[in-house]
Design a protein that fits this description.
Number of strands: 8
Number of helices: 9
Distance between the termini: 43 Å
Strand content: 15-25%
Helix content: 25-40%
Order of helices and strands: EEEHEEEHHHHHHHHEE
Oligomer: single chain
């Protein structure tokens, strides 16, 4: 069982990680642990128990993400005993927390998604990582029309539109192209030499296939923002509308139009003003709001529209 625990810290989307030694190197991984059929009544209860044990962090909102079972996914090979023919299957979970609370547990750390996926944050425009990634992808495509079309589609090359939900497809393309550091490692090959710029643009590797699990979680969460009010699981009980917009932008990785975002909130009737001001905004005091959680039991509730800020 593997957990992608997401929170917002200082305006950035962060994931809870644990440090692990992988082939002699210290790499980040996701909180994970084995399922005991005799000792654990359900997958979710087991997940909550070992995350608390590893990080001293109690999970809130949790949903099952995906089952990962590709052959060799546990590279370098996990020690599962037997004759070596065993395969490690991992059930991934997505968990959302209203705050990145320090765990005070050695080896656990909240780390920004941008450390693992530098190409995913478009809030300030096209990420600098593309300066190194784009020529590397074109070199890999090497005139192959199908490969080039996939690179254009997923990485918005040649003025193709950016789709923020294709996080997993982009990571898997980099893996297939041999650009993701995990690709050579998983094949037992020596990693090719990279320029410092390209190495930084490709992000930090993680143990096993944990970066793929993290990419799957980010894809799921970005898509779910639009049809379920999950963003409020990342918010405190009281918040300003500016703080809510910054949280949505941090997860989606795109800038939003302020007025249109607030109009969409008003139409959806998801929030309610409290008639009190937050003086800790660093500027003019702003009204505090709360999520109208009671409407979840009254009617079907959608997510938030993402009115992009266009230049």
């Amino acid at each position: 069982l593997s957990a992608v625990v997401v929170a917002i810290r200082n305006g950035e989307a962060v994931a809870l990680t644990v440090q692990s030694t992988n082939g002699g190197a210290e790499l980040s991984g996701l909180p994970s642990g084995p399922f005991d059929p005799d000792g654990h009544r359900t997958f979710e209860l087991a997940l909550r128990a070992f995350v608390t044990e590893q990080t001293r962090f109690d999970l809130g909102y949790v949903e099952q993400l995906y089952t990962f079972g590709d052959k060799g996914r546990d590279a370098p090979l996990a020690d599962v005993g037997g004759d070596g023919a065993s395969r490690v299957i991992s059930v991934g979970y997505l968990a959302l927390a209203p705050g990145a609370i320090d765990t005070h547990f050695a080896g656990s750390e909240w780390r920004p998604w941008s450390r693992f996926f530098p190409w995913e944050d478009w809030r300030a425009g096209r990420p600098a990582a593309f300066l190194a990634i784009e020529p590397a992808l074109r070199a890999w495509a090497a005139g192959d029309a199908q490969k080039l079309a996939r690179a254009r589609l997923h990485f918005a090359l040649d003025d193709a539109p950016w789709n923020e939900e294709r996080v997993l497809e982009r990571f898997e393309l980099l893996y297939e192209a041999g650009l993701a550091p995990e690709a050579a490692r998983d094949r037992g090959e020596t990693a090719p030499r990279r320029t410092d710029a390209l190495a930084a643009a490709l992000g930090e590797p993680m143990i096993s296939d944990h970066r793929r699990i993290l990419a799957t979680a980010l894809s799921r969460l970005r898509g779910k923002l639009k049809y379920r009010p999950v963003v409020f699981e990342l918010m405190p009980e009281e918040f300003t509308l500016s703080a809510l917009q910054r949280t949505v932008e941090a997860i989606a990785g795109v800038p939003l139009h302020k007025q249109n975002f607030r109009r969409a909130l008003e139409r959806a009737q998801l929030v309610e003003g409290l008639g009190r001001l937050d003086a800790d905004t660093g500027g003019r005091p702003a009204e505090l709001f709360r999520f109208r959680r009671e409407i979840l039991a009254a009617r079907p509730v959608g997510g938030l529209s993402l009115p992009l800020l266009r230049e």
